[in-house]
Amino acid sequence: MKKSLIWVLAAIAIITGVIVVYHHFSPEAQWFPRCPVKLLTGLSCPSCGAQRAFHALLHGQVVEALSFNYFFILSIPYLLLACVAMVLKKNNKWSVVTSVIEGKTLAWIYVACFLLWFVVRNILNI
Fold it and tell me: What is the pLDDT of residues 5-44, one digit of tens each?
């Protein structure tokens, strides 16, 4: 078996496991990890609420998911595109598409939005 196929199968198994756990258990349970930034500073980091938002999405509750973390929900298309770009990267006919998705400009825009979300959510107490 090729090494790359093993990595793909391992990734699929891990992702499936995460989806099953988050579907069947609420992140508000005691054993889910808590945000270290929130615990240490009292500030909500850009990812705070992402676990609860993911759980709500898996149950089809989009509005509730948005209430937990807007940025996480709005980031999903970009993150999915990045995953697709990694898969398509080996095919040369998709090189233009993958270069835009994986390009530095789009990545920096994402990072800037992530940091802006950190500031805005704490100022507006979202």
Answer: 788 788 889 999 999 999 999 998 778 888 899 999 999 9
- Structural domain count, the chain: 1
Q: Indicate the residue type of 108.
A: W
Domain range for residue 27?
Answer: 3-123
Q: pTM above the 0.85 mark?
A: no
- Tally the residues of the chain: 126
